[in-house]
TrEMBL record:
Homodimer. GO terms for molecular function: ATP binding; catalytic activity, acting on a protein; histidine-tRNA ligase activity; transferase activity. It comes from the Bacteria. The gene is hisS. InterPro entries: aa-tRNA-synth_II (IPR006195), aa-tRNA-synth_II/BPL/LPL (IPR045864), Anticodon-bd (IPR004154), Anticodon-bd_dom_sf (IPR036621), His-tRNA-ligase (IPR015807), HisRS-like_core (IPR041715), HisRS/HisZ (IPR004516), HisRS_anticodon (IPR033656). SUPFAM superfamilies: Class II aaRS ABD-related, Class II aaRS and biotin synthetases. Residues 1-322 form the Aminoacyl-transfer RNA synthetases class-II family profile domain. PROSITE patterns: AA_TRNA_LIGASE_II. This is Histidine--tRNA ligase. Its EC number is 6.1.1.21.
Length: 424
């Protein structure tokens, strides 16, 4: 029997993993500059957390969650997103008793049973941020700018920010009633999925990509024209802070996002180079989430960015991340005695910070040199009994082909000098 990775999952292999590591390193760096701190939550949670937090009539909860019973009969779910877990942790660990606001970020795998396609998998990876316990519109702008600044670090500058407000518990019910009335009048023009959502979750209809539905949706009542004074003021303030940061945006009153916990600000960052799946990251404010899952009124805002989508966007723009696979030195070995001495040298070089490799397959010199070439070795050196007896060998620059004779006892110092010259 031949085993394969489950559909919708991928092995991330070297040298591609170097790109992932670079993205993660830059994420740690940028988020730290904004005073966000990493949080690591469990891969699975009690199913009810996501049912209550995300919303029982969302596609994620209805169709996409990986849910199972453990041996104690408890229903558990592999996390389909990160925010509900972060808020659960905030409440459970009583972080609300500490200095506020709390600023977290996370990096890790999420799981949804979706139809695999470009940039969308059943196990996918997100990096995200959550700013908790403040309703300040400036924080909304900070969250948005944080995501944009991170993407700019990777060379993505042609981005489109879509912005909306989805109101609050005070003004949204009236808007939903108007929307429901409008959709009911035009029900026959909607797809079956949207028809079923009119009563259960009418806002989800605005997110439908069906062409027939789009013609109906475009003439639907706009939520931005039905905000209460508080929500309207908050939305204007968010825009004013984005203006201060000189971040361009366009108001998209049809933007509602796919989760029920959003309130007020909702946003998406798009890259048109990605085609149909053009959203790199999105998020918004979720002031009712903590109360829904923990009976505590704590506002919050955040976003999640798909790493697979980010890599696709970089590829589409032909942006090369500054990562290189290879080793500094490959030691080519001839004979058992030379192998023992080389093994000692290998350890010294590695301990001093040099990426070093040697042969472990007892191959001939030619095969070892080919292996060094495949590993993109910067330098190679051949060590045999003759070299040991003379305490000298020739080190070769694999790019230029230049060679230099060195004392084996000085190999460490020679490598330091060679690397220093390259850096200068």
């Amino acid at each position: 029997m031949k085993f394969k990775a489950p559909r919708g999952t991928n092995d991330i292999l070297p040298p591609a993993t170097l790109k992932w590591q670079y993205i993660e390193e830059k994420t740690h760096e940028v988020f730290s500059n904004y005073n966000y701190h990493e949080i690591r939550t469990p891969i699975f949670e009690y199913t009810e957390l996501f049912q209550r937090g995300i919303g029982e009539v969302t596609d994620i909860v209805e169709k996409e969650m990986y849910t199972f019973e453990d041996k104690g009969g408890r229903s558990l779910t592999l996390r389909p997103e990160g925010t509900a877990s972060v808020i659960r942790s905030f409440l459970e660990n009583k972080i609300y008793g500490q200095a506020q606001p709390t600023k977290y970020y996370y990096i890790g795998p999420m799981f949804r049973y979706e139809r695999p396609q470009s940039g969308r998998f059943r196990q996918f990876h997100q990096l995200g941020v959550e700013a908790i316990a403040s309703n300040d519109p400036a924080l909304d702008a900070e969250i948005i700018s944080l995501g944009i600044r991170l993407l700019q670090k990777f060379g993505l500058n042609e981005l489109e920010l879509n912005l909306n407000s989805v109101g609050c518990q005070e003004c949204r019910p009236d808007y939903v009633a108007k929307l429901k009335e409008y959709l009911t009048k035009n029900k026959e023009q909607l797809c079956d999925n949207c028809k079923s959502r009119i009563e259960r979750s009418p806002l989800r209809v605005l997110d439908c990509k069906n062409k027939n539905c789009q013609s109906v949706i475009n003439s639907a009542p706009k939520i931005t024209e039905n905000l209460c004074s508080s929500c309207d003021e908050h939305f204007k303030e968010v825009q004013s802070y984005l203006d201060i940061l000189e971040i361009d945006y366009q108001i998209n009153p049809l933007l509602v996002r796919g989760l029920d916990y959003y309130t007020n600000t909702a946003f998406e960052i798009k890259d048109n180079a990605l085609g149909a799946q053009d959203t790199i990251f999105g998020g918004g404010r979720y002031n009712g989430l903590a109360e829904e899952i923990g009976n505590r009124d704590v506002p919050g805002i955040g976003f999640a960015l798909g790493i697979e989508r980010l890599l696709l966007s970089l590829e589409a723009k032909d942006i090369k991340l500054p990562v290189e696979a290879g080793v500094d030195l490959y030691i080519t070995v001839i004979g058992a005695k030379a192998k023992r001495e080389s093994f000692k040298l290998l350890d010294k070089l590695r301990s001093s910070g040099f990426k070093t490799e040697m042969d472990y397959l007892d191959r001939g010199v030619g095969s070892q040199m080919k292996s060094a070439d495949r590993m993109n070795a910067e330098y190679t050196i051949i060590i045999g009994e003759d070299e040991l007896n003379k305490n000298a060998a020739t080190i070769r620059n694999m790019k230029s082909g230049t060679e230099k004779e060195i004392k084996l006892t000085n190999l460490l110092e020679e490598m330091k000098q060679l690397v220093a010259k390259e850096e200068n």
